[in-house]
Amino acid sequence: MYLKKKLLIITILLLSLTGCTNLNTLDLDSLTDTLLSKDVNLTNNVFDGYKYYLPKGLKLVSKDEYNAIVKDEYNNTYYFYIDVISYYNKEKANYKENNNAYFSKELESNDKNGYLEITAIENTDVYFIEYMYNYGKIEAFVKENEIKSAIINMSSVLSSLQFNRTVLETLIGNKVLDYKEDTYDVMKPKGSTATKDTYLEYEEKYGVYKGYGDNNTEEDKIEIEEN
Questions:
Q1: For residue 149, which of 127, 134, 133 has the smallest C-alpha distance?
Q2: Environment class of residue 76 by beta-carbon count within 10 Å: exposed (0-12), middle (13-18) or buried (19+)?
Q3: Residue 93 DSSP class
Q4: pTM of model > 0.85
Q5: Mean pLDDT of the chain
Q6: Which CA distances in Å does 9 have to 110, 150, 174?
Q7: How far, in whole angstroms, is CA 169 from its chain's centroid?
């Protein structure tokens, strides 16, 4: 009964966002505007200091402090980073649109900001998505016909991200400088340097997932699912 009720709420939310519009008929610019026009207030993943919602079709595979790996219905891997440092310092993303990208847009909605940059990987049929919004960032390599589906999924997750400042102050208050540099490197766009080798290296590198904030103990690392 609880699951049915949640699915009904999601359906109503999507209808309120799009009316009778089919999201897949929208161009990427209109799609992001539509998806970010209202906040997602649902949550189904709660951790120390933050929580977020993973819509149906997405599966949390592993989590390591403020990083996570998520799989979608096409078995694409989403690399999810949560920027608690910028949230803690109340910093805004500083992004300059990239005219050389397949798609590049600065995002601003509901007092939240970020960017979406999509880069075509030369000599492949793969595209690199970097979606940073609301102090979270998701990166993924997908096929062209999967881009819109990925954007819809990523928008839902990032829009739903909520923080508990009181808890975060106790967790990172004395570690801000330790995290600051690594966080900056993760959150800044890297699509202009993405190549076929980058794509291949990602799959190899993230076979054993490792992101910023890796000074945590083994007890902080959890494997959700073994594929």
A1: 127
A2: middle
A3: P
A4: no
A5: 80
A6: 21, 21, 40
A7: 23
